[in-house]
Amino acid sequence: MLYLASQFAWFLLAAFALGLAMGWISHDGDRPRLSSGVWIVIGLLWIGAAALSWLQLLNGVLATWVETGLLFVAVYWLGCVCASGLRKPAAKEPAAAQE
Hints:
- 74% of the residues lie in helices and 0% in strands.
- The chain contains 5 helices and no strands.
- The longest helix has 27 residues, at 60-86.
- The protein starts with a helix and ends with a helix.
- The model has no long low-confidence stretch (mean pLDDT 80).
């Protein structure tokens, strides 16, 4: 994995930046949406693929592709989480002030 990170450093930086942008844009202001059904499915798929790679059930080119995908998904997700955590919740105004 370190070899892949060293070979794709600029692309990983771009994936992180894209994750930051998407995390910032998709933040709804109340709470981070990290526990939605889609994220749970993606997380389970990621864990399954990581287990296949760690147990060395995949070899050769397929293992390289899977590990590269795992690395990019993890970096993108990290960017989304960082941006969502940095963005402050929207200030809720009292109902009387809005009327």
